[in-house]
Design brief:
The protein is 55% helix and 11% strand. By secondary structure, the chain is α+β, with helices and mostly antiparallel strands. 13% of the residues are buried.
Length: 289
């Protein structure tokens, strides 16, 4: 039974039943009772709670009377506006009604907790998203495009020789001024690519650890680099990324449920389009050619 409750088709049928029930309730409001306004205890509690959250205290009798009268005015005017069709062709109202239907889908999906097995399967299906990213630590000396390609490479090789043969040489006092610091610790692969480019990233991870190497090329020019640490990354365990996996799985299920529900509704309609003169028809699912 528990497994059955987690099937997407069951979710879709349940959502349909909820919305069908709402439709029946709306239908029951037609006729003589349509003008009856029944204020429930829940509505009164929401008024009280809203005031308490705003003012950090309960309302006085006079304040509550004002709240209630405003609520009643809103309800009456809302009903009259619907009767007059003022909700039609209003983009803001259309958007809000769409959101409320989508919220119903989201609430249904979130009410069914995914099991650890489902979370683990979702994690394993997309380890690139959840895995521990590779990181590097390195020190670089920048040689800019000042004298031309050949001259810059000659200067870079001379700096490399100096750093290799003279352990006391200070890399921060060598090379040309650079917008970024000489040392970079625990830089993620993503940041490395964004900052220095693909060519630099590909070359720096090939350097021997703890030794000066290069010159290697970045989007800025040439660099002499000492690679101090290389962490190639690893797959994540569920315990490490559970919250992120949970959010993504719920989001994915909600999108799927939204699409299933919409497809079911759309199948009840016949949609035709009169395309503007000179415009070629566009193939859209659910729209007759």
């Amino acid at each position: 039974m528990r497994r059955l409750l987690k099937e997407p088709l069951v979710h879709f049928l349940a959502l349909g039943a909820v919305l069908f029930g709402i439709g029946l309730l709306r239908g029951e409001g037609a006729g003589p009772s349509a003008n009856r306004i029944a204020i429930t205890p829940g509505a009164v509690e929401r008024l009280l709670e809203g005031f308490r959250m705003t003012w950090q205290r309960p309302p006085t009798e006079s304040e509550f009377k004002g709240l209630f009268e405003d609520y009643l005015k809103e309800e009456v005017l809302y009903r009259e506006a619907l009767e007059m069709g003022l909700d039609r062709n209003d983009q803001i109202i259309r958007r809000r009604m769409r959101q409320k239907l989508e919220f119903l889908t989201a609430d249904l999906v979130e009410s069914i907790e995914p099991s650890d097995e489902e979370l683990q399967a979702h994690l394993e299906a997309d380890q690139d998203r959840y895995g521990q990213e590779a990181t590097v630590s390195f020190v670089q000396v920048y040689i800019g495009d000042r004298d031309g390609a050949d001259e810059d490479r000659i200067r870079a090789v001379a700096i490399l020789d100096e750093l290799r043969t003279n352990p006391s040489a200070d890399p921060e006092q060598m090379g040309d001024p650079f917008m970024y610091p000489a040392g970079h610790g625990d830089m993620s692969e993503r940041d490395l690519l964004a900052l220095f480019g693909e060519e630099f990233a590909a070359q720096v991870v090939e350097l021997p650890l703890g030794e000066w190497g290069g010159p290697i090329t970045s989007a800025f020019g040439l660099h002499v680099v000492r690679l101090d640490m290389l962490n190639l990354g690893r797959p994540s365990g569920l315990a490490e990324v559970r919250d992120a996996v949970y959010r993504d799985l719920i989001s994915e299920r909600t999108r799927e449920m939204d699409q299933r529900y919409f497809d079911g509704l759309l199948s009840q309609y016949t949609v035709t389009v009169e395309w503007p003169e000179g415009m070629d028809p566009v193939s859209i699912p659910g729209v007759l050619p």
